[in-house]
Write a structure and sequence with these properties.
Mean pLDDT: 86
Radius of gyration: 20 Å
Number of strands: 5
Helix content: 40-55%
Structural class: alpha+beta
Shape: elongated
Oligomer: single chain
Length: 144
C-alpha cells in the first residue's frame, strides 16, 4: 500500500510538471504572436534601419550598414510599408543561440500573412526573448 501511494505521488508530480511545460509553451507562443504587429509597426512603417537597431537584438547592430541599407531598400521597393496582419501569427518557440554568442535563448518563429502597401505576403518574423521582452531578430518572405 505504501509503495502504491509513493508511485501515485511520483506520477502526480510528473504529470503536474509536464502540464506546466505545456502551459508555459502555450503562453510563450501567445505572447510572441501578440508582439508581431507591434514589432512590424515599429520596423516597417516605414522600413527603417534605425528602428530595426533600436527594437532589435544586438546582432542587428553587427550587420554591415551597406547590407542593412540594401535590405531596407529592397523590402521598401518590393512591399512598401506594413499595413497590418491578414492572418493571426502562428509562432513556434525554439531554444537556441544567436550568431554572436553561445548563450541559449528562446526564439519565436512566427509565420503569418501580412499586408503591405504594395501587396500581401506570407512572412516569417523571427523574434528573440531579451530578458522579459520579445525583440526583432530576422524577417523573411516565405511566399511572394
Amino acid at each position: 500500500m505504501i509503495l502504491r501511494n509513493k508511485i501515485l505521488i511520483v506520477v502526480a508530480i510528473a504529470g503536474a510538471y509536464f502540464l506546466s511545460v505545456i502551459i508555459r509553451a502555450h503562453y510563450l507562443e501567445k505572447s510572441a504572436s501578440n508582439v508581431v504587429p507591434n514589432v512590424m509597426n515599429l520596423i516597417a512603417r516605414p522600413w527603417s534601419i534605425e528602428a530595426m537597431e533600436i527594437n532589435g537584438d544586438a546582432d542587428i547592430k553587427s550587420i554591415a550598414s551597406a547590407q542593412k541599407e540594401k535590405l531596407v531598400y529592397s523590402l521598401d521597393s518590393l512591399f512598401g510599408d506594413y499595413e497590418g496582419q491578414v492572418s493571426e501569427p502562428n509562432c513556434n518557440i525554439v531554444t537556441g543561440t544567436t550568431k554572436s554568442n553561445s548563450i541559449k535563448r528562446q526564439f519565436a518563429y512566427c509565420l503569418s500573412e501580412m499586408k503591405f502597401s504594395k501587396h500581401s505576403s506570407a512572412t516569417k518574423l523571427t523574434l528573440v526573448k531579451n530578458e522579459e521582452n520579445w525583440v526583432f531578430y530576422d524577417f523573411n518572405i516565405v511566399k511572394y
